Amino acid sequence: MSSKQSVLSASGIVAGYTSRPSINGVSVELSKGAPALGITGASGVGKTTLANVLYGQLKPAAGRVTFDGAAVSKLRLGAKKRFQTTVRKVGQNGFFGLDGESTVRRVVEDDLKAARKAGRASGESVEQILDTMFLEPRFLDRRLRTLSGGERQRLTLALALSTRPEILILDEPTTALDPTLKDKVSARLRDLIAEREIGLLVFSHDLDLLARLCAQVHVLAEGTFVETGTPRDLLVSPQHPATRDIAEAYPEAVRALRAVQE
């Protein structure tokens, strides 16, 4: 794989956990330095399914996912480890599969070790990595099971950023955060994405969050993208019924955008 290209591409994806696919013929492409992309839709439409397919955690029934031209499902051990440090994914459930008795320090150190082996060491200290997502050094000796949902989410984001990824996939990244932290985290993410030229894909039902992070958003419904536009356009002038349903959940954001237009 060539680190210069850093293109994650999905073509004609059909996937789902039931006999009726929740994703039916979707194509999407991400690359380092490209404008941030969002995918929105109601709960249960297949956003997480598509995120898992892109990261190689779920094999599609049809279609192909490649990274720099190589099929993600066929990456050998060394290439797969490099892929998983170059392309990072943060899910909404935090540390799935990790021992709750592990300390924050141990988890961060293990992640940095894996990054070094894959040639993606950032040179940052454990404390600097935590500070990326507003976590103080006092968290280092905390066990994972003692962290709140918001603390776990911020730690997961900090770990993903620690390998200086070229592509970042976020699935509902701020659901566990209160409004103040959501504002701080989204602003920090926006700055880091721009500074490091990270290719960003955000899956979220929250159009307000997508407006903060993304240049363009696809609306997922009935297995496919039914509408595409800027976050502002989707909030203020939604065309598809699925988009209107989502926009109606954020009346304050809509009013603020309309006020700016006037």
From TrEMBL:
Statement: the UniProt record of this protein carries the keyword Transport: yes
Annotated ABC transporter domain residues: 8-247
Keyword annotations of the record: ATP-binding, Nucleotide-binding, Transport
Single Gene Ontology MF annotation: ATP binding
Pfam families from the UniProt entry: ABC_tran
InterPro entries in alphabetical order: AAA+_ATPase, ABC_transp_ATP-bind, ABC_transporter-like_ATP-bd, ABC_transporter-like_CS, P-loop_NTPase
Name by which UniProt lists this protein: ABC transporter ATP-binding protein
